Structure prediction request, 295 residues.
Amino acid sequence: MISVIIPTFNRAKKLRKCLLSLCEQTYKDFEVIVCDDGSKDDTKAVVQDFKDKLNIIYEYDTNFGGPARPRNRGLRIARGEFIAFLDSDDWWYPNKLLICSQFVKDFDLIYHDLDIYHDFEKPKGIAKGKVLAGDIMKDLLLNGNVIVNSSVLIRRSIVSLVGEISEDKSLIAVEDFDYWIRVAKVTNRFKYINQSLGGYWEGENISYSIKQIERTKNLLDKYILELSADEQKSALSLHHFSSARTYHGLGHFSDAKKSYINGLYRPSMSRVVKVVAGYLMCCLSIIKIKLNDSK
Prediction:
């Protein structure tokens, strides 16, 4: 059996779509654990609507302010041999669990792509994963997180070895990345499925903010001494480049320019092109702002 753990907070409408997608799964041997992090809306009523359609459990606790604690509550009561993580604003396509279940004999952590949505009409892109090779922990630290939380299926015995998800509030929104790094220390049996098996909602996403830059740096600081000196420089370069793209997207063009330049330690040619393009776009944006201010 698979235990599907869904942390949620004030997302009743999106939770309904999430649970409807579970009703449509072609693979039926699963339980659903909705862990409510202190919602004030009608989340409980939505869960009640699915009592006759799903093997569903509702757990409520006061607000923690992030998904780690409610996920851990779900882990403690889950009965499945495998754990599936699903955020309450995401959803799966009907064949998600069936396809993933084909790999459970040979792998401990299974993940795949998700289509990115800004509305519920059609996808705007793909949250892409990739095959992780060699030392998986180092691959993640040096090349970034390619495992989307709502795609993951993980063996329960591995969870028992790794322990619970970190509830350190300095790691909110990167606690899943932290967990994959910790999992990589006990197993290398990761399986990437090169296929979109669900929808990823990119609306009110706490992973896209200035605070997220600080959180990713906190995560890097946690593991950086486990890398060689050269690897540390490469990991810091990736952090600066990722920060630049976040600053750029949020309109902090001066900060983005600095971070783009700092992201140029031994870059690939594709990153050089992206850095140059991003830097020039920031310069143009700053010039436009100054021209508008002078009018």
